Here is the input.
Amino acid sequence: MKMFAGLTQASQASIDKPIMRKIEQPIRIMLVEEHRTMRAGMCLLIENQPGFTVVAEVSNSADVLVEAKRAQPDVVILGLNGHEDEELALVPALLECIPDVHILLQTAISDIKVHQQAICLGAKGVVLKEQSAEILFKAIARVHAGEVWLDGRLMARVLSELVAPGKEHDVEKMKIATLTQREHQVILLIGEGLKNKQIADRLFISQTTVRHHLTSIFSKLDVTDRLALVLYAHKHGLIKLPSNASGFNRPKKID
Here is the structure.
């Protein structure tokens, strides 16, 4: 599969193996981490590592895209802190904002489904927060080089889930399987004809978060607008159109 080109296992052997790469310009890194102490510690560690520089620090998901556009990082380290739906939705949003950016997730969660979903969304790697700074540095360098970094203990399980026999022949089922629970809720509300503000009010989230979810949904399902999403969702049983569906107005694109 294309997504696994250059896949690197974070085994002890690869940790001990030096990275033979001449760094002409420092790798520009953006940190997204809501915990101030954690973010400050990471910034200090990274700034003291030759070849790396921190160009932006963000604590709030709402500021991520604005700062990313301003700082133009090479690598974004995206911390997961228990808000997986909202945080993972930033992956496709960042890739749309800066197509060449490499996203590395840092998480305390060893759940295979989270790691699998992150890679499906376009993240280049996942590092566990319990791992050493040396592993983090190597992961940054490898994803910047275009490789994929996964924890060795979970790699085999992630791969087996993604390329299990028969799954490669059911592309649409795989697409739908990557949707989060929150994204399913957004799709249902889109099917009811709700606009972004109404969806935000119904789910008690911000309109910015709704837009992030829609960007993620469009990317995962390979649709271009809300009408295409409604048609796709109806075709694949994600929603049931109301009885007056014939009068369904063409929905507007993301606000």
Notes: The chain is about 50% helix and 15% strand.
